[in-house]
Design brief:
110 residues, 5 strands, single chain, 5-stranded mixed sheet
Length: 110
């Protein structure tokens, strides 16, 4: 069995006339990409304003591992300290189920 190639894409986008930052995420979020995922979220969090929201569009994420869930939990805690809402957009059960089991279900926008 070979090593599975991992890939992740992160693209922050400020919504015009709003305090929302949208981050489009695609690919696999696992042990190999968690650091890159966290760095991208930190960058996006730096663009947020108090009372705004950080919207993570996870609809193109194919795999979300434990390391990715840990990064999401850290991002949720950082956002809460800054009074920024964290909203997760996900459609696949393979992504929403781990998020729910990790206790981040309140962040899901279904």
């Amino acid at each position: 069995m070979g090593i599975r190639p991992t890939r992740i894409g992160i693209a922050p986008d400020r919504r015009p006339l709003a305090d929302d930052i949208v981050v489009h995420v695609a690919g696999d979020i696992d042990l190999f990409t968690a650091g890159q995922f966290d760095a991208g979220l930190l960058q996006a969090e730096g663009l947020t304003v108090e009372g705004g929201r950080l919207l993570l569009d996870l609809r193109e994420v194919e795999f979300l591992g434990v390391a990715g869930l840990h990064v999401l939990d850290l991002a949720y805690r950082r956002c809460a300290r800054r009074h920024v809402g964290l909203l997760l957009l996900a459609a696949r059960k393979a992504i929403t189920r781990p998020i729910t089991l990790a206790g981040l279900h309140h962040c899901l926008n279904r």
